[in-house]
Design goal:
single chain, two-stranded antiparallel sheet, two-stranded antiparallel ribbon, 74% helix
Length: 278
């Protein structure tokens, strides 16, 4: 084999290895850990600086309500801790290598950025046609601040959802939405639907995969309050399908980073546009 041939084979092997390793739960955990810490620490500092709570993310509240079924679960950082535990246990079960790979994470961020481009184009076309703003769409992923007391949720109505219109709040919500919406609607819900369709109902695996993608995407669209209109439901559901396909094809780390980067770019663009308009 010629030197050129060996080099080509090595490059192909390295690329194949990248596609595989970027799927591994431990690599996803290390890759996402800075985002998890940034969201949790940033939220804490935001509350300290502005003496007000951020609107709670729908996905976080759903997860907290589910955990309350098994007893009191009022920890502020519990959703993030659960994500870390899930990915770590998944890694243990798979028995993948333990080696961190910094170069891998750079490639994963580059890929995630490239995957945001089709969604940004779709969102720009949709918002122009439906006169929707990015900020209002992000706000639909949030609700007024709720505090968990025992087995009940009490709503603090004096906290305005419009606080998400500030860039700092929008940035934190962008990170949080990317992490916890993917945890709930992709990692958890797709697995549940697929298990029901394939393991319980005994449908073919490809039918289970299609059903899991469509079912989780419809839930992702329906949970947003603004999706009462057919157009907005179509937007959220289409975005959900896109994220679901990325999750199944490229793994949890890539889809979270894609979601986060999309939200950050969209919110920052809206913020800059509002400054230029003033």
């Amino acid at each position: 084999m010629s030197k050129t041939g060996r080099q080509a084979q090595g490059e192909l092997g390295a690329m194949t290895s990248y596609w595989e390793r970027s799927h591994w739960p431990l690599q996803a955990l290390i890759f996402l850990l800075p985002l998890i810490l940034l969201y949790e620490l940033g939220t804490y500092l935001y509350v300290r600086a502005y003496n007000t709570q951020l609107p709670n993310l729908q996905a976080e509240v759903l997860l907290s309500k589910f955990l309350n079924l098994f007893g009191e679960a009022s920890g502020v950082y519990l959703p993030g801790l659960i994500l870390i535990i899930v990915l770590f246990c998944w890694h243990i079960v798979r028995r993948d290598p333990w080696k961190p790979e910094p170069k891998l994470y750079l490639l994963m961020y580059i890929e995630s950025f490239l995957l945001t481009i089709p969604l940004l184009v779709f969102a720009a076309i949709f918002m122009r046609e439906h006169a929707a703003s990015v900020t209002s769409i992000l706000q639909q992923a949030t609700i007024p601040v709720e505090t968990i007391q025992g087995d009940t949720l009490s709503i603090e109505t004096n906290v305005a959802v419009s606080s998400a219109q500030s860039w700092q709040a929008g940035l934190l919500l962008s990170i949080g939405a990317g992490i916890y919406e993917e945890l709930v609607y992709r990692l958890i819900l797709i697995a549940i639907i697929h298990t029901i369709l394939v393991d319980l109902i005994s449908l073919p695996p490809y039918i289970g995969a299609i059903g899991a993608v469509l079912g989780s995407s419809l839930a992702f669209g329906y949970i947003h309050p603004e999706a009462i209109s057919l157009g907005m439901l179509l937007f959220y559901t289409t975005a959900g399908i896109y994220f679901a396909v990325i999750y199944l094809a490229r793994g949890f780390g890539i889809v979270v980073a894609t979601h986060v980067l999309y939200d950050i770019i969209a919110v920052s663009s809206t913020f800059l546009y509002s400054l230029m308009s003033d």
